[in-house]
Specification:
about 350 residues, alpha/beta, Nucleotidyltransferase, domain 5, 5-stranded mixed sheet
Length: about 350
């Protein structure tokens, strides 16, 4: 079986092509700029009004770059769907000066940019250039999705859905969605639409980046020998940790990386392991929250991943940098592959 795994992060999009007939270490791997970075660069190079089409994607630097473009005196128009990249509430999008496209207008002289987290045509062209077949039995994609509820803020809604998922000890692999993905995960739904628009009829497996990483860390060679441990992804924006006992999540907390110090991170990890951490203490510290079902027997090791993982070095914890398949950059893609395979 050949699997294409794409993990779209804030800094990079990490891609792995895995063939079950080969060792994981022999997989084809790519680390490319995250889509929002090259779209932002496109905007900077254009000296004209811009019309955005396409779908919802990870916004990253796009909002700031669009605002800088409008400050130069240019107009920006967005189709209603891709405008939700900026804010789900289109009134808030219009409030910063972006025009929502009117179907009765043609916008003839505007430079057009297509938005989207996934560009299969571009990737296939690249692979074919190296005589690599673009033929897969399964496609698995990870993006970070806060979900959308008009009556609740993104931070609270995201963690509410995590808490609902971890209503009992579960394997991290259970965070993958195939046929049963909820409509409120708007970015994941957009990925599905983009794949279908590229002519691929098979439904891709879609997963949140944080839980793809958590799943991948559990397949690190060190982690596989442990019974009771912590996995933590320290990302550019968010830090997500889970306590693991016998292969199942017993608790989780999520915070903003910029708000953490070595001291506070260690405190949260120890309280997660002991089962003492509360949702209120993390939320009131401007994090997303915490949810614990059971304490774990001990912290045998902290398995850590993510671009800001050096923060763990400021703690007194016994830690190990995850490298499933021998690569610290492929934690999320390995999680996607293991999820697609069912373990």
């Amino acid at each position: 079986m050949r699997i294409l795994a794409i993990d779209v992060g804030t800094g990079t999009q990490d891609i792995m092509i895995y063939d079950t007939e080969k060792e994981l270490e022999n997989s084809i791997k790519l680390v490319l700029p995250s889509p929002h970075l090259y779209i932002s660069q496109q905007i900077r190079e254009i000296e004209n009004d811009i019309y955005f089409k396409g779908d919802i994607m990870g916004g990253g630097k796009i909002k700031k770059t669009i605002q800088e473009h409008m400050e130069k005196g240019y107009k920006v128009v967005m189709d209603p769907l891709c405008a939700r990249t900026i804010r789900d509430d289109l009134n808030q999008v219009k409030a910063i000066g972006i025009e929502i496209a009117d179907e009765s207008k043609e916008y003839k002289n505007y430079t057009r940019i297509t938005m989207g987290d996934i560009n299969i045509a571009k990737l296939s062209e690249f692979l074919l250039g190296y005589d690599l077949e673009f033929d897969f039995d399964k496609i698995a994609i990870a993006v970070q999705d806060h979900g959308y509820n008009e009556n609740m803020g993104d931070r609270d809604f995201r963690f509410e859905k995590i808490r609902e998922k971890v209503c009992e000890p579960i394997s991290p692999l259970e965070f993958g969605f195939e046929d049963d993905m909820p409509e409120y995960f708007t970015r994941m739904q957009a990925v599905r639409r983009q794949i279908k628009a590229e002519g691929i009829e098979d439904i891709p497996l879609v997963m949140d980046t944080k839980f793809a990483s958590i799943a991948g860390m559990c397949y690190d060679e060190v982690a596989k020998k442990l019974k009771s441990y912590i996995v933590i992804d320290i990302g550019n924006g968010h830090t997500t940790a889970a306590s693991i006992e016998n292969g199942k999540i017993q608790g989780v907390f999520e915070h903003h990386t910029s708000s953490l110090t070595g001291e506070s991170l260690e405190r949260y990890i120890r309280r997660l392991a002991s089962g003492e951490i509360t949702h209120e203490e993390v939320h009131e510290d401007y994090g997303h929250g915490a949810h614990v079902l059971n304490p774990i027997s001990k912290i045998e090791k902290v398995i850590v991943s993510g671009p800001k993982r050096e923060l763990i070095e400021k703690t007194n914890l016994d830690w190990h940098h995850a490298a499933p398949g021998g690569d610290v950059m492929m934690t999320g893609t390995v999680g996607l592959i293991k999820t697609a395979l069912g373990g």
